[in-house]
Amino acid sequence: MGRRGEGGSQDAQGERAASGIAPATYLMTAGLASDDYRFLGRAPREAFWRKYAEYTSFERPTAILLSRGDSFRMYLSGILSARRDRTKTPLRYTLVFEGPSRSDAARSALRALSAFVCDLAELGPSPLTVEAFGRALDAALPEPFVESALAAMRDGPASDRGPLSDKSPLLELEDRVARAIASLPRSGPFHTSDARFFSGGRASLAARSQLLGFAQRLLEDGEPGAALVVNLASRDHLESLGAGEPSCAVLFAGEAGEDAHSEPLEQPPKKGLPGSPKGRPRAMQLARAEQAEPGWSIPRLSHLLLGALRTVRDWFRGTRASS
Question: For the chain, what are the domain ranges?
């Protein structure tokens, strides 16, 4: 699924020549006849996201972006579809991207991540709402097409003919995913800072903006590091999540709890790491006041107060440990 035709497009060949890495997109889903999730077409060579299985449920919204400077890999899961399986259970999409940094593939991946992160702000009491990203994928991958692609994999060449065109459904997948992503708005805002380690909650506009600005540095500037959206971890796991990374941003995406509502804090995952901020955690603000989230509701004020108390507590603990 990572190529258009046998040789790939001229743009993809140019990006491969520049970095030695061919852009590729992979999609996993299930269908009406089977709830067996599988990649349609070929699968990624390495399940790099499994490293984070302890910190997130892949059935719920998860994003893992890893940059090694000249190349990137990104995993997005828990994207809800309006399609249902035979038991009426909602189906999901998982997407995996890889390719060279500072390329069209990287910019497309950033647009996908932006839509994914902005959809997190809409998570409410019902986790079964299909958001903008899921609707775009559903429009590009209607149920008859998905079922024909699954049949092509199950039954082989005899069924390798889609009902919506004369092309193999498996060969159409990458183009259809690309069209879905291109239809999405370039959401945001993208707040750029030089912070190398920070965390925040999905319900905070400031935290989402910081994460997207950080991801932009990884994808468009080729900065090494990791940007993570995880739904089981807390601040207690920051050191483990950032271990071995030259920079790391974490967005807590649980459906409830203090961490999901926390404002962004600049804090190293390990004390003494070169380039990490010194002393107690530092609050991070949006650059312009007009970007701040409107309103000062009681729940929002309570979450801000809890976050401030937790910061003071962590600072006192650190002071005692160092004395």
Answer: 10-182, 197-322
